[in-house]
Amino acid sequence: MDTPAKSEPAPSKRRHHGVGHRFETRSRWVLFNFLIPFAMVASAVAAVFALGSVQPSERPTADASFAGRMQALMPVRVEQIKSLAAFDEPLQLKVDGTVVPFREVTIATEVAGRILFKSEGCEAGASVKKGDLLVKIDPTDYELEAQRLTRLQEQEYEALGEIDQEMINVKRLIEVAKQDEQLQQREVDRLRTMPGGYASEGEIDKAKRALLQSTQARLGNENQLELLRKRRSRLEAAERLAQAQLAIANQNVKRTEIRSPIDGVIVSEDAELNSFVARGNPIVTIEDTTKVEVATSLRMDQLYWVLDQVDASEREADHGYELPETPAIVEFEISGREGKKYQWDAKLLSYDGIGLDPNTRTVPVRIVVDNPQQFRKANVIKSSDGETTSVTHVHTAGPTTLVRGMFVTVKLLIRPQTPLVVIPAEGLKPGNRVWEFVPDPSVLDLPPIAEETPVNPVKAEGKGERLETDASDREASEKDQERFNPDDWQAGRVVNRNAIYPVDSLSINVALDQRRWWVCEVQDQSMSAGAYVVVSPIGNPDGDSIAARIQREVSIARRSQQVAKSESAEASQ
Description:
The protein is of the alpha+beta class. Helix content is about 35%, strand content about 25%. The chain has a six-stranded mixed β-sheet. A six-stranded antiparallel barrel has the order 4-13-16-15-14-19. It comes from Novipirellula aureliae.
């Protein structure tokens, strides 16, 4: 089927459609490029004229009076710094530490043998007292050895008795031999003194022979006596040896009973009943619980304050490796129970070794707690202003004692020789700086030019309109001037102090009203106790100082009384 051909529009209709499309495009272009922008600009100009112009408020005329000059100064809020010695509080340096044993004793067997007895308390974790029997080794062999040596000692003693008796007998024989020798000597002398012919030579020789026999008998007995004395010395040495061996045997018998040498807790044990142990085998390790140590280290700046407690002139030359004994408080906080803290009294004794730790560059020290069973409970109540701490003695609740592995906080109670000041935290600025307020009435003096020329003249042109516009502001300013009393203020300068070195934070509950304060050292001593530091923000002062004013303490007290009276009046109504 043939499709019919589409009819084409007439030329007149196509020409009319093209003209209309061009007109619509031109109109849209004129609308968006001319009419709408012009209308927006006209609306903005009309809005500006409708709102009018705002004249900036002129600075009020400066008042050259004393009250005006005082009011023109920048008001600042200050706090008076105090001396640390005024509170009778020591400087507290806080360091973290870990509890370690004061002493740990490893007990080893001194004799070999079979374990015959083991105490029920000889187990890891059990508490023992000094002298408690832990393990007993079979003493049979050692008791028999002691008996044998006892008999040997008795035998040597009897032998000494025999020697003593022989020596007595020989001494008697020597006395008899001496008497016989004297008789023979008199006989020889008598024969020699007789006249010739009365005694033959044979009789004289016979008498001499008898004398020699008596002398020989005496010398033989004396030699035998010396020999007996030597034998007695040897027997005495043998008896002493037997006595020493018997003492060793008796000591070995005692060593079969292994007792606790200290009060403490058994850390580990390796002894089983009926097992054989050799000499020197460790079987029990006991930790001393009468004292504990806290392993901690001090930075060099902290060590400086510890050493500053003693004057350099009082230190002896050989005390360069000793630290002054410093009281301390060991504090432990129970995990999961915020505010539950327990405290123990401790003391810093000495260095733990010598030199610095190469890893942390700190100095290890020894802190000893003499009585780890006696502690105090510190209830800490945290608030938005600070912390309130109340300490009470507690002996039942909480940890029973300090044990190894506890992470604790150590507070060193230091009383340094260098004077320190207490500065509020708001007064300490970045860079260890403070702004000190120094009273100086000269900041109120007028310069000579100000006295000769009028102060801030106001142009007459347009003055009426501005006066009408600012009438309410001037009335408020006049009311403020009427309420402003220059006697309630003190003029001075705010001076920048740089040589301030904070040592540690301080929180004194009652005196300082739970505020945070810093204990600082003023190295150049440019500030002392009683000075005023600025605690309100004033920006960066240009130059070394700026003029300012502070409110006197009398006016502060009077205003507080007025506020209290008004509050009481409102409460009564």
